[in-house]
Design brief:
With 109 residues, this protein is of the alpha+beta class. It has helices spanning 11-20, 27-37, 46-58, 82-107; strands spanning 25-26, 62-68, 74-80.
Length: 109
């Protein structure tokens, strides 16, 4: 069982946007993709994921529509908007600057 790691505020939103950059996905698929790519370091529970999806949709960074899933059940699929792609680019640049700065501090002896 993977241990859940707390994320910095706003990081989940960036991870969701990055995941949706691959194409439309339903909530379960988003959480599974993040967990898989992070090699089980990041386990996103529904209590965190769905409020983030709602928030991102309210900000027009993603849009959603109902469709049938692989197992023929109704599922809400989320997709990145043009505004969401722009936001992802900006957040990625900010994250890279921040993580490089933290890394420099951690490497100082």
């Amino acid at each position: 069982m993977a241990k859940q790691t707390d994320l910095l505020q706003g990081t989940l939103d960036m991870l969701v946007l990055k995941t949706l950059a691959l194409g439309p996905m339903h909530g379960w698929g988003i959480s599974q993709r993040i967990q898989q790519v992070s090699q089980d370091v990041l386990v996103i529970n529904q209590g965190s994921l769905y409020p983030a999806l709602y928030r991102l949709e309210q900000q027009a960074l993603i849009k959603s529509e109902w469709d049938k899933s692989d197992n023929n059940r109704q599922a809400k699929y989320y997709e990145l908007t043009r505004k969401g792609r722009k936001q992802l680019t900006e957040e990625t640049e900010t994250w890279e600057r921040l993580s490089a700065a933290v890394d420099r501090i951690l490497q100082t002896t």
